[in-house]
Amino acid sequence: MVELNPSSGTRTCDPALVCVSGFNMSELRLTGSDANVQVNFDPTFTLTGPGDPIVAEPLFPGGPGAVVTISGGQAVVNFGARLYINAGQAPGIYSGDFTVYLEYN
Asked: pTM of this prediction?
């Protein structure tokens, strides 16, 4: 398993894995009138690449249902993920999409 922690901005790799190169967090960028925005998202998504698909769980500070405050017209919050790496996973670049649901209050 590999975890990208959105609160600390760090990556933790299972000791059985070799994690190389850099990494980036996904960012949620909100702009508009000052407001509170409730953030929800699907519980899992899939990354595809040269090997078997990798199941991932989005990680967001405060978890699903957390509220982000837009102040001064903008807010930026990191999204991380917990990646469940398959045994014998082929190295390479993997990518995927996940859906974020926003409810402005």
From this structure: 0.86
Distance (Å, rounded) from C-alpha 85 to C-alpha 11? 14
Distance (Å, rounded) from C-alpha 25 to C-alpha 104?
A: 24
Q: Which two tokens stand for residue 73?
A: 């017209």
CATH match for 2-104 among 2.60.40, 2.30.30, 2.60.120, 3.30.160: 2.60.40
With contact defined as beta carbons under 8 Å apart, do 73 and 33 qualify? Answer: yes
Q: For residue 21, what pLDDT band results from cuts at 50, 70 and 90?
A: confident
Which tens digit of pLDDT belongs to each residue from 75-87? 999 999 999 999 9
Alpha-carbon dihedral sign for residues 18, 95, 64, 22: positive
Q: Which pair of structure tokens corresponds to residue 46?
A: 């899939």
- Region label for 72, one of left (φ > 0), alpha (ψ between -120 and 50) or beta (otherwise): left
Phi then psi for 95, rounded to 5 degrees?
Answer: -145, 165
